[in-house]
Design brief:
Layout (H helix, E strand, L loop, with lengths): L8 H19 L6 H8 L3 H8 L2 H26 L4 H17 L1 H12 L8 H19 L9 H25 L9 H17 L3
Helix pairs in contact: 1-2, 1-4, 3-4, 4-5, 4-7, 5-8, 5-9, 7-8, 8-9
């Protein structure tokens, strides 16, 4: 009599997350059915409920898996460094590089924005935003940044400038002349937004 093959829970969860991410990236959260994810993973739909509770629970874990490593590293940088212009510049470059290395994350963020599905903003993200805002506020008190701009707007602008590039880079490449641009257009754009951004937030 053949041996009954035991299912590895961690492998099963990983397979479900991989399948869910692939389908969510293609169709978005709202247009995705659990049956599609189960079929993609080669696993019964009941196992999704067993491991994640619901489609929303699975969606939250897909987002968490994408963001948690970045969020933890960025938070560590913010919490261990003194408030300064250089810290904000390094934080901006770190976020930009994360998006460049993770195009799937950019697509997830696009779906979240399109579907206005931000209820699942996980705790790491809230902590990161709160820490970033407070660090900018400290830098303002120390005179590194102008004080007539709300630190929440400063943080939102710098993340938006980075995300905008990766969401609409194809539009730039098709609609704007590439003449005179360096081969590494990503780095050229990063340097450009750093110049524009920091000339705006530094004290006059």
């Amino acid at each position: 009599m053949g041996q009954v093959r035991k299912r590895d829970p961690e492998s099963t969860k990983a397979a479900l997350l991989d399948a869910a991410e692939a389908v969510f990236l293609e169709k978005g959260y709202g247009n995705t059915a659990l049956s599609e994810i189960a079929k993609h993973a080669g696993i019964t739909k009941s196992l999704i409920h067993h491991y994640f509770g619901s489609k929303k629970g699975l969606w939250e874990q897909v987002k968490l898996r994408r963001f948690v490593v970045y969020a933890e590293q960025q938070l560590r940088m913010i919490e261990t460094a003194s408030p300064s212009v250089e810290l904000l510049r390094a934080s901006m470059a770190f976020y930009f590089d994360f998006l460049k290395q993770n195009p799937e994350t950019v697509r997830l963020l696009s779906w979240i924005s399109l579907e206005m599905n931000e209820d699942g903003c996980f705790q790491n993200d809230r902590e990161l935003i709160s820490a970033g805002v407070e660090k900018i506020r400290e830098a303002q008190r120390l005179g590194y940044f102008r004080t007539d701009i709300d630190p929440r707007f400063i943080l939102f602008v710098f993340t938006g400038l980075s995300l905008q590039w990766f969401q609409h880079q194809a539009h730039f490449e098709h609609s704007y002349s590439q003449e005179g641009l360096p081969d590494d257009v990503n780095d050229a754009y990063l340097q450009a937004i750093i110049k524009v951004f920091f000339e705006g937030v530094l004290p006059r």
